[in-house]
């Protein structure tokens, strides 16, 4: 059975939080590009492009590598932005009906907007870490790895809890 055909294609407008997440994600992308441009000539010939589990640089690339994450963040942002506009194709922990679709779709759109902002912010932090480390400064170490692992998992967990509460609310 094709679940997408079973789910209602109801239009749900963006919430204020969703709009704010998208707005700030876009601002962070612009700031990330500006930062990379400003830092480019201040960087040594090689910058770190990978950090190990202890947060230490363990692979290096040319200084143009500082543009790697800003360039990746733009299509990632666009993909998640447009995917959020089609909540009827998302997976849900409950059967989607015309009655519960508006609430479920709002939650799903908000989850994608939050994750979009979070991923862009993490890319910006890593870009900063790359430049900071290339200039011989101390890194965030293991805290960087903890942050980029725990933050997205916590966001997903938070939204799963919200969806489960919504599921209970809609079935009672």
Automatic annotation (TrEMBL):
Domain of life: Bacteria
UniProt feature coiled coil, ranges: none
Ligase recorded as keyword: no
Residues that span the membrane, as ranges: 20-40, 60-83, 110-128, 140-161
Residue ranges constituting the DUF1648 domain according to the UniProt record: 27-73
UniProt keywords, alphabetically: Membrane, Transmembrane, Transmembrane helix
UniProt xrefs under InterPro entries: DUF1648
Protein name according to UniProt: Membrane protein
């Amino acid at each position: 059975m094709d679940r997408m055909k079973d789910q209602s294609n109801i239009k749900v407008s963006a919430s204020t939080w969703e709009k704010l997440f998208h707005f700030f994600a876009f601002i962070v992308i612009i700031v990330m590009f500006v930062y990379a441009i400003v830092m480019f000539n201040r960087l040594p010939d090689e910058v770190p492009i990978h950090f190990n589990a202890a947060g230490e640089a363990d692979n290096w690339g040319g200084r143009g590598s500082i543009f790697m994450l800003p360039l990746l963040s733009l299509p990632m942002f666009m993909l998640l932005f447009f995917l959020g506009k089609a909540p009827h194709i998302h997976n849900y922990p409950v059967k989607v009906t015309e009655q519960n679709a508006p609430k479920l779709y709002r939650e799903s759109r908000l989850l994608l907007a939050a994750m979009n902002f979070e991923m862009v912010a993490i890319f910006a932090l890593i870009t900063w870490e790359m430049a900071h480390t290339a200039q011989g400064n101390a890194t965030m170490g293991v805290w960087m790895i903890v942050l980029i692992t725990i933050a997205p998992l916590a966001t997903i967990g938070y939204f799963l809890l919200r969806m489960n509460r919504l599921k209970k609310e809609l079935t009672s």
